[in-house]
Every structure is written in C-alpha cells, then in structure tokens.
C-alpha cells in the first residue's frame, strides 16, 4: 500500500518514505507511527492505541511516543508549531490531517526500461500492455518513464491505453531517462528518434498517439512515413505554435516569451498546472513538478519552448493518408479547441471529437479521452499502404554529388531527384557536400510515388524550377520548406519571390 501526500510517498510495502523519489531516512518505529496515523487518518489516534500498535503492548513511556511523533514530523517537513500534517489533539491523541491523493495497492512495474540508439544517443523506452497492434505514445513537453507511473491517475491512463495494444513509450532526447545532448532537436530529428525506438522495440507499423507538443511530430511522421503508421490520434494539439493572420488562435510571440521567462525562471510546474489542468489537486500538481524537474533543467526548458514556438506543420497535414482521430477539450487553455478543429479540417478524412472540460493534461478524466480512442481503434482497420508519401524533393542540376538521401530517382526529363524524409536533413546534406561547384540545387516538399525510379508531379517540377534559378553551387528552397525548417536552427534568407537560400 502506498500513500501519496504533498511531494511525499509513504510506501508500506517497501517500508520507505520518499520525497521526490528520494528515500527519507527514518527509524523503524518512527515509520510505523507515521504509517499508523496515515492509515487511520479519518480519526484521532490515542497514545495508548499507538503504544499497542507500534510497541505491541510493551510498556513505554509517553515521552517515547512524543519523541517518535516529533521525528515523524521532522521527516515530513512538519513541526509542533505548524502541525500542517500531524495534529496534536490535546487530551485525545494525534491525527494525520494532510490530503492523501491515493491509498491503493502499489503497482510495481517490472517492465524494464531499455535503450534505443539514434545518432549515437541513447533513448530510453519502455514496452507495457499487449495485443495485436502496437501503440506508440508521443508525449507532450516532458516525460519520465519511471515517474510517469508514480501518479495513480496517470498510471491508470497508461494501463488502460496498454490494454488496447502493446504500448511503446519513450523519453525524448534531452528529457527523462534519455541522453542529454547539447542543443535542441528539431521535429525531423525527433521523428527519426521515434523510428529508432520502433525498430528497437520490433514494431513494423504502429498507431501513433501524439498529445500536446507530441502532436505536430506525430503528424509529420504520419505524412512522411505512412508505411510505419497504422493510424494517427492527436489530443490537445496544434499545427502551429505562434499566432499569425491565418492562424489566430495560437499565442503571440510576446506571450510565448513571457511564458518561457516565467517557467524557466521559477521552473514552477505546480503553478503552470492552473493552465494545464485546472481540475488537478495539490497532489497531482506536486507530482507534476517532481516529474518535470527530474525530466529537464531550466535551460533545457527555455530551449525547448523556443524551438516549439517555431513549429509549423500546416503544409504537411494535407498529405496524411492514414485513419486519424483528433480530440480536443472545449475549454483547453494551452491549445484552443479551434486548433483541434483546424487539424481535423486539414487532415483528409479525419474524425473530430470535441470533449467537455478545461483540462489539457491527459491524466485528468482520462476515461473521457480513452473512451473515444477505444471506439476509434475498434473500428479502424490498418490502412493499406498509400501509393504516395510526403517527401523533401531535391532537384540536382549538374553532376550529382554523393548524397545521403533515402532514395534517388529521375524525372522524365532526366533531372536527378534525391528524396529525403525531411527538408532539414536535405539542407544539411547539401551544405555538407565539399564539392558542389557548378551544381545547382532546388528543394521543395511534395507528394510523390513511394516506389519507382521515375518521379514527376507539380511538387517535383517546383524543385526543378528552383534548381534552374539557382546560381552554380547554390541551393534554393521554397516557402513551404522555410516553414517546416523554422524550428531546426537553419537560417534562411530571401532569394527572390517564393525562394530562400541558407544564410
């Protein structure tokens, strides 16, 4: 049995008191006194009852009981003056008065945390549940594979989702139990990380469930790699993180800057829960804070939010060809319900469910979300592999240098086309070519046939036209590319109408 109060866990099974996951040293009798008071918190416990329960009827003085009460208070951060958690009822005894969030059997997780390797970095992942289908959960801002189980309501969300299929979860690079590289990864890099986790877990094709910040990356992966995505679920997510004239629901740049200053300055996720989950109680807020601080540092928080502010996957939505469910709560204050409607409206064939409530976080009233997910998955058949997929199309005019593209083809006119699964990867590849004198490059995002040595279509012709306009040795990219690489750290400067070059 484990009891959770404030930022503490009283685990009767392991005989441990833990604060933020760290064991608090206690004498055995002090632990027993605290455990008895918490277990019988609905009433006042007399000194005589404590003596019988803890000392087994052996004679002890009242000062021994008083001493153990004092030690118990010190262990939980209380004292005789404040009596915030352990109250003395004069002439009667003692009572535990703290708010206990959970008093349930401990769900001991025997599922091991394993590691996948992507770009030389180790990414922590865990597989739970079971079933014929795989479900990859793409988390929001931060996660922690172990602490994710420490909050009973969040654990219940994970357990139920795992009852619908083999649940594959991971901590993004830079957070949780994964490696902490320098710099912040863009969406493409994270997309490659998900594929590495799927490969390590032996998942050929899976349902992607992306919530909050995990949504845009899940959507991009579904568009670029439909062969790996059986279906797509988006909850509380968005297509763009900064307001523009044609996307008026997102925060302004000034609002995002104020948000990151407050959050990184205080690293006060408990306060942020007022927006993320207004219905959360104090225990959930404290767990949220513990989990967040264990997952990332303030400097990482600042960098992640700055990257997320630039995210824009609007141009990829129309190329998603897998069954899609979009869920959004009507009163969500982190991402507006209009953003959920936008996603559903721009993803072909997507279903949309508008849910009542104001909580952004998945663990609050999770059955409301998962009822919709269960119904969707019950009726969703694995989509046939679509003939088209979204790709970054690089047209090469001149002798083609050695490139690391996932595929090389030609146009009917003989132009070399290198196909990448993301524009940032393509730009970095071209910029890394040592000898490109006399070669001109044009890059655009386009849907094209997944197989075959000859490719054609409007998007391919845009890439060809950009290569034709480029100077020898130059790469020109389209405005669509500019939008998708905005969060990658690649600087682009205008090079005429609807064209940009790396700065």
UniProtKB/TrEMBL annotation:
Q: Does the keyword DNA-binding apply?
A: yes
Native source species: Paractinoplanes pyxinae
Give one Pfam family: Trans_reg_C
Q: What is the lineage of its organism?
A: Bacteria, Bacillati, Actinomycetota, Actinomycetes, Micromonosporales
* GO MF annotation list: hydrolase activity
Return the protein name. Alpha/beta fold hydrolase
**Keyword Manganese part of the UniProt annotation:** no
Question: Which part of the chain is the OmpR/PhoB-type domain?
Answer: 1-98
What the entry lists under CDD domains is as follows: trans_reg_C
Q: Which residues bind DNA?
A: 1-98
Q: Which UniProt keywords apply?
A: DNA-binding, Hydrolase
PANTHER family, from UniProt?
BIFUNCTIONAL LIPASE_ADENYLATE CYCLASE LIPJ (PTHR43433:SF8), HYDROLASE, ALPHA/BETA FOLD FAMILY PROTEIN (PTHR43433)
Annotated Gene3D superfamilies: alpha/beta hydrolase (3.40.50.1820), Winged helix-like DNA-binding domain superfamily/Winged helix DNA-binding domain (1.10.10.10)
